[in-house]
Amino acid sequence: MAGHTMRLKVYSGTGLASESILLDLPSAVATFLMDQNEPRTPAVAVASGPFVYIYKNLRPYFKFTLPPLDVNPLEQDVWEQAKEDMIDPLTLKEMLEGIRDKAEIPLSVRSLRFLAQEVQEMESFVNLHKGQPIKRQTVITCMSTLKKNMADEDAVSCLVIGTENADVLILDPEAFTILAKMTLPSVPAFLDVMGQFDVEYRVTVACRDGNIYILRRESKRPKYCIELRAQPVGLVRVHKNIVVGCSDETLQGYSQKGKKLWTVYLPAPLMTMSLLDQKSRGFQAVMVGMANQEVHMYRDKNLVDIICTQDVVTSICFGRYGREDNTLIMTTKGGGLIIKILKRTAVFEEKDTSLGPPMAQSIRLSVPKKTRLYVDQTLRERENAVAMHHVFQMDLYRLRLMAARAYVKALESSLTPITSTLQEPLKMNAVVQGIGPTFKLTLHIQNTSAGRPSINLLVSFLYDQSLYSMKRAFFKAPMLVPGLNYPIETFVECLSDKGISDVIKVFVLREGQSTPLLTAHINMPVSEGLAAA
Amino acid sequence: MGLFDKLAGWLGLKKKEVHVLCLGLDNSGKTTIINKLKPSNAQTQDIVPTIGFSIEKFKTSSLSFTVFDMSGQGRYRNLWEHYYKEGQAIIFVIDSSDKLRMVVAKEELDTLLNHPDIKHRRIPILFFANKMDLRDAVSSVKVSQLLSLENIKDKPWQICASDALKGEGLQEGVDWLQDQIQAMKT
Ligand SMILES: Nc1nc2c(ncn2[C@@H]2O[C@H](COP(=O)(O)OP(=O)(O)OP(=O)(O)O)[C@@H](O)[C@H]2O)c(=O)[nH]1
Ligand SMILES: [Mg+2]
């Protein structure tokens, strides 16, 4: 473990086993086996600045320095002139600025620092540095490991390094010579390496330009490129697929050729991600530490587990710790270390909680075989599609026309129980009570206007006089106050004992007008009682 | 039991046989403990991690023990349950210095106690809080706390601190186990 306190700490069980002071801020840490020697104790590589410090048996063992970069010959020339005192600091400044703005090879750190000096300090800066040769150095941004020529768990591995000048280097595990160098279009931020150096390998790199590049053995340039919509914040390879976490709170899966497979929307910003590889069961999942103090585990796009922690998790590592194969180690923002051991009997169950097509969709339905009738019908539909469409449209128009006509008729004769005139907004419904031969008929009339009372309204009943008789078939309605419900009761006598019934029509009329304001048709029930007579 | 066997038993010539399961995580010292309980001429010098399980025998004053020394490695732990039915007593060994894996030991113990072949039996359990000699070992009281042994209400149990390398604490535990088994039989 390497931290901001610039210490390399080694833990064993629950206790600290050793602690070494680092000289500079670490940018990456990796463990790997350098040689075949027994016992097979791995070395720890700590990258910081342009160096990789190798520790073996808890002691510093070796320091690797990145090779210096080419220096711009023009820059070299002007410093040479400054050394010979042929130019003064101000001219040097102008010339360096010229080079900075145009040249392909960027200036060295020394020149850049010189350009940042105050004028009065330039002279002394030049005098202090002009004697030494100019050097240009890059720094390490990320680091990983790659098996040399065997797939075994304890096989010798090479270090794979990403640098600030957009290179990926592969180092020999023993001699620390550069075995391969590949150049990327942007600065690498996250590395994932699979395969073996001597056989076939694949380096997946998430870069600061928001793209993921996939490099292969014998390819000096990227073979595939994935353009992301947001900056990558983590990269993990699950089996052969690539899973990348982005700053827009998404987790995305891609095939090894860069085809997008799925997207999961996360509940909070992503802090770190790592692979959960339960080798005994061949189970792999991606663990995602988020700012909401949760660690989610995804198998493809399916959430299989959630771990809640006391603090935000900043780094995750899963693997063998001591005697336990499936141990999860997490560090937290506040400097905590959390160790969890996966239960021997644990089974991760897939619950399809993500958006998008549900799992059930991919289950094949057993569709019955096509019948002759079905085939014939399909053929007919295909051949006569236009005619069929015409017939259907014609019928539809007819239907609409009939509906419109009926509606107009109803409006004209005020056959509806709600008035259509705006002057007299009225509503009426009728209730029949009793089993006969005398029925009680209650009309509920309501003035639905906002504030205008209705006066001078008449109520009239129309019925078959051989079947029914009414005391008052025509009367004047009381004044209707807006909003109130007026129940008006009358009695109807059924004259027939033959078990027949008819419709009684009710009209609400305005004095002096023959068209009714409202009409209601009351379907009279059959009289079940005996006639009083 | 035939008349002759009975007679031999009364005379103390033939001892009662008991089957004991020796369980616990890998590296806890199960094989080392059992080895130490054997007569000194039958002890082996080099002890290697057990693969699967091995059957060992040793005698006490009145019993003849047949011990199933199970491997504690994760991948072999699913073998344990196949022997639960036959076991008449359990020896559960804990590495007292392995604080990190105390949770794993507890998990395995709980699984054992909840197994249908164990759950409703009054089977005696002897715990060895082993490796007491190591500097970062926790006390046997602490081990029994960490494993919540106080929750075992329906089975006789006992915990003994032990150092299997020197053989300390082993006899005390086995004596207790012998008493329990004899109390059970009568
Ligand atoms: N210091 C110390 N070491 C012990 C003690 N008991 C056992 N050991 C050591 O612990 C290691 C493991 O002992 P084993 O007896 O093989 O453990 P085990 O429980 O049989 O392990 P598996 O067979 O893998 O389940 C050996 O190196 C023993 O020497 C003890 O009381 N103190
Ligand atoms: Mg053993």
UniProtKB/TrEMBL annotation, chain A:
It comes from the Eukaryota. It is found in: Cell projection, Cilium membrane; Cytoplasm, Cytoskeleton, Microtubule organizing center, Centrosome, Centriolar satellite. The keyword Kinase does not apply. The keyword Cytoplasm applies. GO terms for cellular component: axoneme; BBSome; centriolar satellite; ciliary membrane. GO terms for molecular function: patched binding; smoothened binding. InterPro entries: BBS1, BBS1_N, GAE_BBS1, Quinoprotein_ADH-like_sf. Pfam families: BBS1, GAE_BBS1. Residues 4-216 form the Bardet-Biedl syndrome 1 N-terminal domain. One of its GO terms (biological process) is non-motile cilium assembly. Residues 426-528 form the Bardet-Biedl syndrome 1 protein GAE domain. Keywords: Acetylation, Cell membrane, Cell projection, Cilium, Cilium biogenesis/degradation, Cytoplasm, Cytoskeleton, Membrane, Olfaction, Protein transport, Sensory transduction, Transport, Vision. Its main location: membrane. Part of BBSome complex, that contains BBS1, BBS2, BBS4, BBS5, BBS7, BBS8/TTC8, BBS9 and BBIP10. Interacts with the C-terminus of RAB3IP. Interacts with CCDC28B and ALDOB. Interacts with PKD1. This is BBSome complex member BBS1. It comes from Pelusios castaneus.
UniProtKB/TrEMBL annotation, chain B:
GO terms for molecular function: GTP binding; GTPase activity; metal ion binding. One of its GO terms (biological process) is cell projection organization. Mg(2+) binds at residues 31, 50. It is found in: Cell projection, Cilium membrane; Cytoplasm, Cytoskeleton, Cilium axoneme; Cytoplasm, Cytoskeleton, Cilium basal body. It comes from the Eukaryota. Keywords: Cell membrane, Cell projection, Cilium biogenesis/degradation, Cytoplasm, Cytoskeleton, GTP-binding, Lipoprotein, Magnesium, Membrane, Metal-binding, Myristate, Nucleotide-binding. Gene3D superfamilies: P-loop containing nucleotide triphosphate hydrolases. SMART domains: ARF, SAR. GO terms for cellular component: axoneme; ciliary membrane. InterPro entries: Arl6, P-loop_NTPase, Small_GTP-bd, Small_GTPase_ARF, Small_GTPase_ARF/SAR. The keyword Ion transport does not apply. PANTHER family: ADP RIBOSYLATION FACTOR-RELATED. This is ADP-ribosylation factor-like protein 6. It comes from Pelusios castaneus (West African mud turtle).
